[in-house]
Prior knowledge:
With 335 residues, the chain is of the alpha/beta class. The chain has seven helices and 17 strands. The chain has three domains: 169 residues, HUPs (Rossmann fold, 3-Layer(aba) Sandwich), CATH 3.40.50; 51 residues, SH3 type barrels (Roll), CATH 2.30.30; 82 residues, Beta Barrel (Elongation Factor Tu (Ef-tu), domain 3).
Amino acid sequence: MSKIVLGFSGGVDSAVSAVLLQKAGYEVHGLYLDNTDERTRLEAVEAAARMGIELTVIDVRQELDEKVCTPFCESYLRGETPNPCILCNPAVKFRALLAEADRIGAEQVSTGHYARVENGMLYKGRPANDQSYMLCRLRRGQVARVVLPLGRYEKKEVRALAESFGLPAAHKPDSMEICFVPDKNYVNWIAQRRTLPGPGDFVLHGEVVGRHEGIFRYTVGQRKSGLIDGRKVYVSRIDPAGNTVELALWEELFKREVTARDFNWLIDVPSGPIRASVRVRHTKWEEPTCTVTALPGGGVHIECDEPVRAPAPGQSAVLYDGERVLGGGFITDAK
């Protein structure tokens, strides 16, 4: 029986993953990454005990702060829109899982992500719950050791499986979006860690049209409340140096060219342009085809066949070949 280390929280996804892995013949060892409160940790410990799973608990607060929280904070203050899960997965979560696997002599690790790994390659999960976007920065060596048992299921099917397995987690609410911001108020969270910039100007087509309450409250593509000259307007650019939020009309948000830095390739770096499709945010519906060119210094230039809505600096541009993930990098610019 092969050992496998499963990221285990006691929620429905990790609990069903544990049962599916056991049914597939694995000896499941759970790993709980402790970064919240004692109640949540005890719930995971109790769930593992009920399921007969050996559970190791490790405190990842320091690693999370260094690799995720601090970059998250700094990114927002640069006027960007970071995705903390994309930062966390390779640098904290999967790194910890693989370290524990090496410690106990397990070849593979697992999580409850809705994506697939086949023959060392990362693929989309079912459209309704696909989380492959969030895994775009896993290294090829990490992907090669990953098993994702939920990749062929939708969330509603996983809850039905939990019911059939008699798991109390069947009706447990989904986990919070940002695990280190328990009240979901990231503005207050940033304010406790950094001195925040003050109010500044809203600018539309070169003219000041109002005042904003701080650049960290906005993201590219977000609608501004109210109307200007009877029309809806949206955030198109955030300028931290000038402390301004630039606005645009809906039709002005769409861009054909996107540049991304620090691209993590899950294939050999292409020597010339390749065809792919791209997601510029975690979405189910927007994935235009494009031509991609690798740039010196580790970036990429993406030219979309159809304009893509509001690519936001700091978000990830993730490339696909059909259902296969080719890699992802951080958006720096769009035009």
